Amino acid sequence: MLLRVPLLLARFLHNSRLRLIFLALIVLLVGGILLSYRWQTDVQLCFMDSNQTDTTLATASAMSVLQLPRILDNVLLTDPKPIPGRSIFFHETSCHRPKRRRQRPGQRPNTQYNMLQLTARQACAIESAALHNPNFQVFVLFAGPTYRYHGNSSIGQRHQPIIDAILSYKNIQLRQLNLWSYAAGTPIEEWLKDGQLFRSSYLFSHISDFLRFLTLYRYGGIYLDMDVVMLRSMEDVPPNFTGAESNTHLAAGVMSLAPTGFGHEIAEACLRDFQQNFDGSDWGNNGPGVITRVAQHICGTKDISLMLEDRKRCLGFKVFERNAFYAVPWKHWRHFFEPQLLEQTLAHTKDSYLVHVWNKHSKQLAIKVGSSTAYGKYAEQHCPKSYAAAGEYF
């Protein structure tokens, strides 16, 4: 049998058609590996150590002269810092790196910057949180080095109406974080170094999942997804809560944990569950899956209805019913955008703390500013500055 292998291989290679097919497969395989490696490298650069990036840049004063952008302040190093238990957090984990341009002879090196960008809908979520919770600081944390233009130069005066709208609120802070230093000293520090997170098939989503639990471990407070609109204050809602999304799962888009005691223990349990059960091929396992499993352990049941009905069994960890945060389920996300369903949707969410508009499904569907849709009405009332700055479409 072993003697036949060389003969079969020789016959295969002698056949020109088979040889071409074989070579084509090899080229495709190698090309795929190289493309994957290049994508992985580009992604790693988005979340590289910000200290390494800073060493290639001039000082702040020189940046102004050179009309270079400046990096956002690091949340761990810059005042005001988050007030434990009295802060609201959003995370931006996408990557807006420009394509590398070919450098001409004598041209200044083309340094790539991950520039600050927010959509009108993201700004709406941020503004609504700041508007309804004036006694809380609202922190928007960008994962990795993120830059803005500053100074009095013509470049420094580039108009960003969306950014200007949210920064008109004194309780909104824009910060960047470094994944590695942000995780330092926490139960998930060593796991991050393994690199499993960066091999995820849903990298940006899973970094977002990773950060929400890490932020609540560090500071406590309220975590919110960027595709929400807050409808009323949550300043006086007791800490340690999440919300049911369905009869079988809790959701991780709205969570609150106290910075000490029971809340901190829950946050630590979430970090440990995240690393023990991490699955890079499953979109929901590392967000909703984590808080659902942790709550099941705390409450001693997998039955969501029992978590809602018997408050004592969850030991003070409150599970809100669906109407609180997810009155409109993801399968009905279009209800926010259909004028004929305006009154029905507004009535259905009248007792909600906020609405979740399911950006994963709705992001491609724009609405004309001033149109009679539920989303438009929420925005007009609860994030008026962002809505006005959106332009023709929101």
In short:
The protein is an alpha/beta fold and 394 residues long.
What does this structure look like?
Helices cover 42% and strands 12% of the residues. The chain is an alpha/beta fold. Strands 5-3-2-6-9-8-10 form a 7-stranded mixed β-sheet, sandwiched between helices. It has a two-stranded antiparallel sheet with strand order 1-4. It has a two-stranded antiparallel ribbon with strand order 7-11. Helix 9 (203-219) runs antiparallel to helix 10 and helix 10 (261-276) crosses helix 11. The chain is globular. 39% of the residues are buried. Mean pLDDT is 86; it is low at 30-39, 50-59 and 152-157. Keywords: Glycosyltransferase, Golgi apparatus, Membrane, Transferase, Transmembrane, Transmembrane helix.
Measured distance between first and last alpha carbons: 69 Å
Q: Let me know the number of strands.
A: 11
Order of the strands making up the biggest sheet: 5-3-2-6-9-8-10
| Sequence of secondary-structure elements | HHHHEEHEEHEHHHEEEEHHHEHHEHHH
Helix % is 40-55%
Mass-distribution shape: globular
Decide which structural class fits the backbone.
alpha/beta
Count of helical segments?
17
So, CATH architecture of the domain at 52-96 and 112-330?
Answer: Alpha-Beta Complex
CATH topology of the domain at 52-96 and 112-330: Spore Coat Polysaccharide Biosynthesis Protein SpsA, Chain A
- Largest sheet composition: 7 strands, mixed
